[in-house]
Amino acid sequence: MQLHCFGTAGYHSSESRHTSSYYLPESGIALDAGSGFFRLGESLKIDSLDILITHAHLDHILGLTYLLDATLFKRTTCVRIWGEAEKLRAIRDHLFHPLLFPAPLDAEWHEISVGDHWKIGDVDVTCRGQQHPGGSLAYRLDWPTGKRLVYCTDTTGDTSQVHADWSRHADLLIHECYFPDSNSQWAETTGHSWTSRVAEVAKGSQPKQLLLTHLNPSEESLPESEVAKLRQQLDAEVVVASDHLCVEF
Ligand SMILES: [Zn+2]
Ligand SMILES: [Zn+2]
C-alpha cells in the first residue's frame, strides 16, 4: 500500500512544502485537500475519488477548488467529499461562493458524524472527534488485507485509553507535529501537537510506522534533536514527511 504526500505543511505553503494533502492511489482516497492537492493531477486514473476532510480550516480544504480539472476533463467519474455537516456547509457556502469561485463543483457531499462507520470500496472507514478550535476528525482506515492507517491532524494529541484502543497497531500512523517541545504552550493554545505529546500518543497506540506531518512552514523541518527523541522512545519507524514522499506501508 502506498501513501503519496502532496502537501505536508500546516498553516501556509512554503518554498518546499504545500499544505496538508495525501493520497492513497490504490483505493482512490485522499486525506484532506490543502494547497498540495493540485499534485493529484495526472495521478488520478481511478473511477472515483473520495476525499476525507478533517475540518474546514483553509490549509485542509483550499485544494478542493483545484478539482475542476479532474471533473471537467472526466479523469474521474465520481468525486465524493466526506466531512461533518457544518464544515461541509461552510465550504460550500464560502469557498464555493460564486464571488470566490467561478463554477459549481460536480461532487457528492457526504455528511458524517463523530463515531460513524462506513465503507469506501473495500475499505472500512471510521472517525473520532479531536480537540482543535472548531473541532476536527481523526480517521481510521482498515483494508480487508488487515492493513490499518490512522490519520490524526490538527489535534492536541489524544492520550486517552479509548483513543489508544481505537488506533492500536496501525501499519501507518500519520500524526501532526507542528511544534517542538519548547513551544508546547503554544501548541495547546492553538490546538496542535508537540513532540513529547506525539510520543505519548504513539506509545499508547503502538503503530508500526509513524509519519510526522503538518509541519511548521516557517522551519525547514522538525529539529533533528526532536526526531531523535521520538526514535529513542518508540519501537515504531519514525519518518518526517516531505512533499513528493511516497510512503510504503
Ligand atoms: Zn491545519
Ligand atoms: Zn486546523
Name its key features.
seven-stranded mixed β-sheet; alpha/beta; 249 residues; single chain; 7 helices; Metallo-beta-lactamase, Chain A; 22% helix; binds zinc ion
Give a short summary of the structure:
Helix content is 22%, strand content 29%.
Descriptive notes:
- This protein is α/β, with parallel strands linked by helices.
- It has one domain: 4-Layer Sandwich (Metallo-beta-lactamase, Chain A).
- Helices cover 22% and strands 29% of the residues.
- The chain has helices at residues 58-61, 68-72, 85-95, 161-167, 184-190, 195-205, 224-233, and strands spanning 2-7, 21-24, 29-31, 48-52, 78-84, 108-112, 117-120, 123-130, 136-142, 148-152, 172-176, 209-213, 237-240, 246-248.
- The strands form two sheets. Strands 6-5-4-3-2-1-14 form a seven-stranded mixed sheet. The protein has a seven-stranded mixed sheet with strand order 7-8-9-10-11-12-13, with helices on one face.
- Helix 4 packs across helix 6 (195-205) and helix 6 packs parallel to helix 7 (224-233).
> Ligands in the structure?
zinc ion
If you compute it from the alpha carbons, what radius of gyration comes out, rounded to the nearest whole angstrom? 17 Å
Number of domains: 1
* Overall pLDDT metric: 95
End-to-end separation: 5 Å
CATH class: Alpha Beta
Residue share in β-strands: 25-35%
Biggest sheet architecture: 7 strands, mixed
Q: What's the total count of β strands?
A: 14
Content-based structural category: alpha/beta
Portion of residues in helices? 10-25%
Overall 3D form: globular
CATH architecture: 4-Layer Sandwich
Low-confidence segments, ≥5 residues, pLDDT <50? none
Specify the oligomeric state: single chain
Please list the strands of the largest sheet in the order they lie side by side: 6-5-4-3-2-1-14
- In CATH terms, the superfamily is Ribonuclease Z/Hydroxyacylglutathione hydrolase-like
The secondary-structure element order is: EEEEHHEHEEEEEHEHHEHEE
